[in-house]
């Protein structure tokens, strides 16, 4: 049985662009590892998809909070609107995967569509948006420090024990992300 564990998110040196590229590489590695698994390895396939979806949600939050706002005055609004739509589409696929299990009719197809959409999105970012930020003269290192700090905050929220339910709506992004991959269970 294969047990792929993506390398932990290192404290990537460099600015925001280096960190986002490292995230993209990590997600590509997770998709590749999933594709290499035997369909009979259901537990590992489920674990990998959960890890992949968690990575995608965290990455999208970081981009939406830090990367896209830095680009707002530098690119046509339509490019950022397209990126936001691509994030929304990926979120919908992640939501679908929360209800699916390996062996379900649409599990593999949903993962495949997510992989295609993410590959397209990453290519657009790396070829259209990254060069704009690089040429703009913004402080890539400062943005990188902010991204690292925000990632640590979100990851700390993920690692924290779930809060007791108090009947109120969740506040902040970390509770939303923490609950994002709580898969419904079913007897096997």
TrEMBL record:
Pfam families with a match to the protein in the record: Hemerythrin (PF01814)
Positions of the UniProt region annotated as Disordered: 165-188
Ranges of residues in domain Hemerythrin-like: 17-133
InterPro entries listed in its UniProt record: Hemerythrin-like
Protein name stated in the entry: Hemerythrin domain-containing protein
Organism for this UniProt entry: Massilia agri
